[in-house]
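Appendix B, Record 12. Input sequence as logged:
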Amino acid sequence: MLINNILIFLFSFFLSTQLGKHFFFSFSYFNAVKIDYLSIAVYFTDIIAVLIILYNFKIIYLYARRLLKRIKKKRNSFILLLLIVVFITFNVSFAVEPWIALYNYVKLLEVLLLYLIFIDKRFRLNRALIFWGLGASALIEVYLGFSQVLNGSSMQGLFYFLGERLFSLSTPGVAKVSLSGRESLRVYGTFSHPNSLGGFYLMLFGVVYTSKSFSNLAKLMLGFLFGVLVILSFSKLAILGLGFVIVFYHLKTKSCVVCKLSKLGLLLFFIILILSYHTDTLTVYKRVVLLKESVFIFVKRPLIGVGLGNYIPAKSLIKNHPEKFFTQYREPVHNIFVLIFTEIGLIGSVLLGFLLKKTISYRWVKKHAVVLLLILYLGLFDHYLITLQQNLFLLPLILCM
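Logged structural output:
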């Protein structure tokens, strides 16, 4: 019990960091440029996750036994499992870069095992430890964020070991915000991009703010920290989501008409806020271009996809396309549903649909409605929920709350 509590606190505290080592191979380059998305990375949170899995391996073993018993009793379950295994084999073998696909399936397995452990009653997930770990790290992120803005660059030093990248206002491609004609850095914290930071803390804000497991004081303290980080990210998507979470949570609760109107006024404030500043002027154009690009990539491998995690290497399949501007962005399409569909194809998508239908109940969906709606909302306009370590590893944690 003590060891699990220590591990879960460390996992929660370091979840917002990028402390890790990237290994670059020949497949980690696209158009002769080194791409982080294509590296084999081992993060400190991976080490903690493996320790959690090994220490609680009995839970995984018992779950596997129950699964085998179910497969023996139900022929349909055996056929589905067999089809999934066969599909993964083909998806890896015929991927544009098989090693990247294999690495991403290992990462997916790691996330799945964490979820199975966290959700098991024998693990006795300590929710207070999780959120105080996340709260303590959020306090550091707030300090680091304000320091980055005031300094006009990254702080480095100790923060370098937490994953803070080296950048300044003059760094090409750095995320900036223009307020009343004055340019300033958007807060990166220890994240690879402010949008990733904004989405990370919006998810946490949604869980804490709508949870019945926390006192009003805890909600106020944690909600304030998470909300500040969402606003400091200057992610219009995350800030608008913050307003919607606050407003719709209060609209469905019993409160006076004046109180509800005040919350609608707060939403109006958030809308005015995001209209008052400018970030990347090409953000809409980029998303449209990447969506068009994904259509051409999908057509090349419609049945089994281009391989999990292989969206960027798959751009090479359309490099001779007449509209060459499609390959100018070295990142995935900004939509997790299109991204998954492109990488696993029609067959993989159908199998995934059957798997979700068999494993997810209406009760589970209702319990995690806020998180699922935020995944749907953020996932429609960006890819970081499944492509970046911090956001991906947050999912098994908050889906167990």
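Residues 128-278 form one domain.
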